[in-house]
């Protein structure tokens, strides 16, 4: 499809004045061929493969960025879920050593984060996967760039409540062992996790993927906010059309860059993730889009309608622009990484309960939410279970990144810095659901999955 001069000028304007960028290019790498019965050889194989490809990714990304003039904010690596390759080396010490190996490999290659240090445990856990989860507090205290995930549920399998109950306690340990509890920001719990997600902390290279794949995550909250502000008097149908056309343009730019970069790397091009991804800078806020649509402050009544309209239009426009759409392709509402979300919490407009309702009409879920450090582990598990049950019942991806802010209470602010931003610590319901969660077991598969 040809590009007109007007479209090129418009894309340049989006980049120069509205903060449009590619939030991430993520290279997925199969590391199953690195396995060796000798753990030191295994580690060496992983180190070499990850470092060499990290260096190639960074080098080629810089060339493409210069060629097209569109900023590419992050270069990242995702690997085969670590639980798939560590069965014969299953000890906490070896999991920590492998995490340090991955950390060193991407640091040497110049990559921001590496994802995939996790497991698919939606129906149950192996002994090795239990050891992996137990190792996570030490893993995060010993590394800077390693990200971890657990997929604890799916439409076909139901949801593993035993693992969710364990996660609450693990998160509290991670919070204590890492400065500013930042390790919790690098761990995400999923249901229906996609195998081609380019965004951290949940990226991993799925077992259905080729040896390599290049996935792209676009951004552009500032671009969408700009067109919404220019159309303040149109009705909702017309507003949807305006947002849809804008999403088409940003997705097409992402597809162009992704295909070119994959060609340079000589790897298959995977997908474009359509998600709107905010960052803690001015004019890069999804919350501000919602407010530009006519909501005084994100979190008040009408916010769910606005998010639903926004999400529907983004998906329609992006899907029309690019055949290979995947990943999460939703709208991120991370509290700490979006200045508008931070303001909404500080003003009392946005509560944890309202945030949960917003996530029912977008994907991604409860993201970068800080709660008091003395929140019981069982309550953290209950918050996770509540959110993920939305995904099970509605056949959609949901995730939780929740941070029990060690030493902080409701109303305090947790400063994490950089892309992670700052998180106002949100209050939680004082009443208990311990008896329900202690039942454990597995939430049954939804009847909507019975389609065969």
From TrEMBL:
It comes from the Archaea. Pfam families: DUF711. SUPFAM superfamilies: PFL-like glycyl radical enzymes. CDD domains: RNR_PFL_like_DUF711 (cd08025). Signal peptide: none annotated. Belongs to the UPF0210 family. This is UPF0210 protein AKJ38_01695. It comes from candidate division MSBL1 archaeon SCGC-AAA259I14.
């Amino acid at each position: 499809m040809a590009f007109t001069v007007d479209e090129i000028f418009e894309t340049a304007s989006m980049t120069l004045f509205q903060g449009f960028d590619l939030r991430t290019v993520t290279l997925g790498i199969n590391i199953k061929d690195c396995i060796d019965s000798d753990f030191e050889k295994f580690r060496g194989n992983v180190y070499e493969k990850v470092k060499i490809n990290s260096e190639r990714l960074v080098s080629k990304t810089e060339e493409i960025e210069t060629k097209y003039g569109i900023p590419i904010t992050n270069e990242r690596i995702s690997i085969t879920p670590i639980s798939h390759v560590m069965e014969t080396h299953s000890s906490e010490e070896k999991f920590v050593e492998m995490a340090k190996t991955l950390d060193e490999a991407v640091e040497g290659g110049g990559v921001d984060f590496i994802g995939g240090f996790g497991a698919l445990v939606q129906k149950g856990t192996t002994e090795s996967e239990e050891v992996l989860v137990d190792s996570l507090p030490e893993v995060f205290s010993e590394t800077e760039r390693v990200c971890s995930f657990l997929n604890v549920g799916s439409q076909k399998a139901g949801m593993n409540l035993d693992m969710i109950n364990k996660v609450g306690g693990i998160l509290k340990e991670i919070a204590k062992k890492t400065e500013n509890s930042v390790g919790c920001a690098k761990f995400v719990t999923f249901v229906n996790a996609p195998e081609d997600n380019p965004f951290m902390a949940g990226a991993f290279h799925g077992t259905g993927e080729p040896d390599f794949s290049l996935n792209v995550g676009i951004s552009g909250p500032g671009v969408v906010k700009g067109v919404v502000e220019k159309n303040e008097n149109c009705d909702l149908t017309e507003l949807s059309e305006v947002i849809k056309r804008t999403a088409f343009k940003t997705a097409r730019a992402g597809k162009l860059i992704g295909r070119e970069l994959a060609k340079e790397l000589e790897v298959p091009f995977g997908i474009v993730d359509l998600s709107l991804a905010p960052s803690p800078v001015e004019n890069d806020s999804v919350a501000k889009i919602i407010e530009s649509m006519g909501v005084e402050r994100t979190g008040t009544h009408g916010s769910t309608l606005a998010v639903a309209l926004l999400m529907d239009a983004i998906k329609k426009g992006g899907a029309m622009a690019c055949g290979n759409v995947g990943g999460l392709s939703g709208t991120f509402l991370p509290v700490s990484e979006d200045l508008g979300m931070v303001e909404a919490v500080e003003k009392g407009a946005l509560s944890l309960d309202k945030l949960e309702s917003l996530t029912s009409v977008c994907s991604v879920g409860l993201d970068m939410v800080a709660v008091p450090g003395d929140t019981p582990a069982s309550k953290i598990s209950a918050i996770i279970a509540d959110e993920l049950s939305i995904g099970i019942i509605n056949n959609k991806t949901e995730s939780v990144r929740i941070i029990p802010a060690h030493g902080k209470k409701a109303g305090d602010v947790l400063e994490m810095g950089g892309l992670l931003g700052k998180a106002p610590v949100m209050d939680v319901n004082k009443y208990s659901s311990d008896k329900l969660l202690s039942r454990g077991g597995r939430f049954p598969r939804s009847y909507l999955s019975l389609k065969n």
